[in-house]
Amino acid sequence: MPSPPARPRPTSPHLQIYRWQIGNSLSIVHRLTGIGLAVGLVALSYWLVSLAGGERSYAAAARVFASPVGLAALMGWTFAFLYHLLNGIRHLFWDIGIGFERTQRHASGWLVVVGAAGLTLLVWALIRHVPS
Amino acid sequence: MSLRSPLGRVLGTGSAKDGTGHWWAQRVSAVALIPLTLWFLFSLLMLPDLDYATVRTWLSLPVSGFLAVLLLWVLSYHSYLGTTVVVEDYVHSAGIKLLWLLLLRFLYVLVCGAGIFAVLRVALR
């Protein structure tokens, strides 16, 4: 007969009792950014349709995107895209069996967070003409 | 000893009934989206302005129109695969889940179709 465990064995990771750490946080943010980017796809399509519709419909769409809410959304989508891109590449490396060690997981995780934030700032610094 | 039937083993599709098909499609489209999305981002950043004439001239180039169509197509596919899993994971009532999955599928065809049609209208005029 096996001896009783020295401490309670870990149970299923239900959100209510799960100890939050970088791994599961980044995973959840990956999903959230994916959902946000799905909404961004609608905006991208709307922008292209407005372009095809002519000068007036394009100007109307540009006003929507240049509004405070529009600009905030565009900045949010920029971060969401860069985060999802970098973390997606991290996942692809895992898929081919690279980077599973604890230190590697943590390092790549922080690289994704810092990289996405830094690149978001870079992109918005490079945008020469904010639509008005 | 395995409890699985010989037929089940040969088909290799497991309890989800579609094997690794969804998982693999998600990865393949993800790889394709790395160059496509970066091309789109860099192209917009390289434009001297984002006004009507400039953007229209850019999208009229055959390469831009072609890549924009590919981007919309693969992006919609990848996004559809992802949001479908979100619905399957979090919507527990069978009826509402079916409704959501139908709605998502129709919406993606609508949004993707409208985007591609718009690009073609700009590119082919």
Distance between the termini of chain A: 75 Å
What is the mean predicted local confidence, pLDDT of chain A? 90
Number of domains of chain B: 1
Radius of gyration of chain B: 20 Å
Give the ordered list of helices and strands of chain B: HHHHH
Please count the beta strands of chain B (DSSP E, at least 2 residues each): 0
DSSP helical segment count of chain B: 5
Shape of chain A: elongated
CATH fold-level assignment of chain A: 3 helical TM bundles of succinate and fumarate reductases
Largest sheet of chain A: none
Mean pLDDT rating of chain B? 93
Strand content of chain A: under 5%
* Name of the CATH first level of chain A: Mainly Alpha
Main sheet: strands, sense, barrel of chain B = none
In short:
The complex is a heterodimer of chains A (132) and B (125). By secondary structure, chain A is mainly alpha-helical. Chain A has four helices and no strands.
Task: Give an overview of the whole structure.
The complex is a heterodimer of chains A (132) and B (125). Chain A has helices spanning 22-53, 55-66, 68-95, 102-126. With 132 residues, chain A is an all-alpha fold. The mean pLDDT of chain A is 90. Chain B has a single domain (21-124), classed as 3 helical TM bundles of succinate and fumarate reductases. Chain B has helices at residues 6-11, 21-46, 52-60, 62-90, 94-124. In chain B, helix 2 (21-46) crosses helix 4 (62-90) and helix 4 packs antiparallel against helix 5. The longest helix of chain B is centred in the last third of the chain and has 31 residues, at 94-124. At the A-B interface, helix 1, helix 2 and helix 3 of A face helix 2, helix 3, helix 4 and helix 5 of B.
